[in-house]
Each structure stands twice: as C-alpha cells, then as structure tokens.
Amino acid sequence: MIEKIELLCKEIDNLKVDNNEELENLRILFLGKKGKISLLMNDFRNIEANQKPKIGKKLNLLKTKIKNKINQLKKEFEYQNFGNNLIDLTRTAYPYRVGTRHPISIVERRICKIFSKMGFSIIKGQEIEDDWHVFSALNFTSDHPARDMQDTFFINCDNSENILLRTHTSSVQIRTMEKIKPPIRIICPGRVYRNETISARTHCFFHQIEAFYVNRNISFSNLKQILTFFVKEMFSSKTIIRMRPSFFPFTEPSAEIDINCNLCKGKGCPLCKNTGWVEILGCGMIDPKVLDNCGINSRIYSGYALGIGIERIASLKYQVEDIRFFSKNDTRFLRQFEATI
Ligand code: DAH
Question: What is the assigned CATH class of domain 103-337?
C-alpha cells in the first residue's frame, strides 16, 4: 500500500496538461468515483487496524496533493489562456487620434498643387547658402541693407561672411537657372531665416514659395494671368487682385499684389486695416542682369518671378493674428486643422 502511495506521489509530481479536456480527464483519473484515489480507499478498508493511522495519514496527504496539483495545473492553464485572450483579433480597434497636418504644410501643399496644375515643377533648394546665390547674383548692391548683420544670419566658417542662412527662396532661382536652360518653370517652397525680433508679425524663421518662369516672350501679362488664377484657386472664385508698383533688386518692373479682403468683403476691418485690401506677395519681371548672371541670354529670354510668404497666406486663410502660433507647437492650436494625408 505504502509503495502504491509513493508511486502515485511521483506520478503526480510529473503531471502535465495542455488543455481543459486533459485536465478534466486527469481529475477523473485520480479523484473520480472509480479513480486511483477511490481504489486506494477501497484497499484501505482491508488493511490491518494498527496500520490504519499511519497509512490513512499518507492517503490523506496524497489526496490533498493531487487536489493541489490539479488546482495548480488549472491556474497555470487558465493564466496561459488569459494571456492569449488578451489579444482578441475579432475586437473592434480602439479609436486612436490621428495627428493633424500643420497649417503651414497644408498651405504649402495647396500652393504647390495649384502651381503644379499650371505646369510648374517643384525644387526644394538649400537652406545654407552663399552670398552669391542669396544676394550678388540677385542684383543686391554690396551696401544693400538686407546684407546687414541685422537681417542675415551668417555662418562663421573660417571667419568668412560668405556662408549664410538664406533670407529668401529667390536664391533657388539662381541655383536653378545656373543649371537648367530655358524653358524653366519652377516653384521652390522652403524655410527662410532672418535676424528679426520675434513678434506677432515677424519671426526669425518663416516659409516662402518662390515661383518663376523663364522662356522666350514672357511678359507681365503672363504673370498677371497666373496670379489671377492662383488667388481664385487659393481663396475663392470671387477673389480679385490689385497690383501696386514696388521695388525688388532682382525684378524690373516689380509689383506687390493685394487681394480684396476676404474677411470683411472689402468693407474695411482690422485685418485689412480698413483698406479693403490685403497684401499677399511680391513679384515682377526678372531683371535682365539676373538672367545674364546665370548664363541665360537676356536678349533671347525673359521671365517673371514671384515670392509668396506662406505664413502670410495661412494667416489670411485661417485668420491667425499672431504668426508665433505657427511655431509654438501648441496642440490646442494645431489640432484645429484638418487631418489631410
Ligand atoms: N524674395 C522676396 C522677399 O523675400 C520676395 C520676392 C519678391 C520674390 C518679388 C520674388 C519677386 O521672386 O519677384 O521679400
């Protein structure tokens, strides 16, 4: 009897199950009415009385052992199953918040799309530039105030003031015209830097889109035509433009473009400073000297160029009064913009 009990003890120690069914079979095998423990209990009745206390104790221990073992196996088994159930592949996914696109990116993409429709290709250009591409080739005289330390971030490489952060995307005009022969129809979106005090209207970095077209017989009326198309696509079909004479070193003639204020519809409001018009960009016919600087014969070719401030367009479109919002990374502000892909 004692041998049988000890053998069963060893058997119990080595028990393993893989599923519920095996566990139940095990329970029946040991604890069922005709199970191994019951059989031993039957045998127990027949043993001598003086042996009973000793063997009875062992038998009880055996019974507890198998019960504990079955419970333990059950727990292990349930735990494994619970682990598996954590991943319920049939469950509907938790809704998770999709990020929104930054308003500057939305406007940049929109502008690029409108110009792409008109046959313009996109070139990104570089942010670290040299004096030639940002100033000299664009006809800035050596004493032009824009070259001043007050405006430009110079990068002090071997003490030369030649390397700088571009102050405008017009530099991409030069880089492109040096490389590609006309016809050239390009837009260049990107970040620009100026050493300005940060305020509601100015920042030390912002974004521009340069657009230019060089070919034979390009005239001011071509420029006017694409500008008219652009503002109607960007704002509304009712938007009209006004051209004001202006000056840029690299264009002649030059103009600044206003649109009728879309907030007050021309009646006058703080946005348009009661004029009914808001300025959106600068433009003009590329100065022949600039073409020649890039190896393009200005007697054969002409071109127009324009520079759009993306923050300016975004401020008008979304009525943002303080451009610092665009770089604050305040999610309460950013979350308001559409989550376009
Ligand atoms: N580069 C000018 C600026 O940063 C913007 C500009 C004006 C670009 C007139 C042009 C242009 O191409 O024709 O203020």
Answer: alpha beta
* CA 76 to chain CA centroid, nearest Å: 45
Q: Report which ligand 1 atom has the smallest distance to the Cα of 286.
A: 13
Mean pLDDT of 82-94: 71
Instruction: Render pLDDT for 270-299 as a digit per residue (tens, 0 to 9).
Output: 878 899 999 999 999 999 999 999 999 999
Which residue has the least CA distance to atom 12 on ligand 1? 306
Question: Where do the CATH 3.30.930.10 domains begin and end in the chain?
Answer: 103-337
Residues within a 6 A CB radius of ligand 1: 168, 170, 210, 248, 251, 282-284, 305-307
pLDDT at 160 over 70: no
Q: Which is the closest atom of ligand 1 to the Cα of 211?
A: 12
Per-residue pLDDT for 157 more than 80? no
Ligand 1 atom having least distance to the Cα of 304? 13
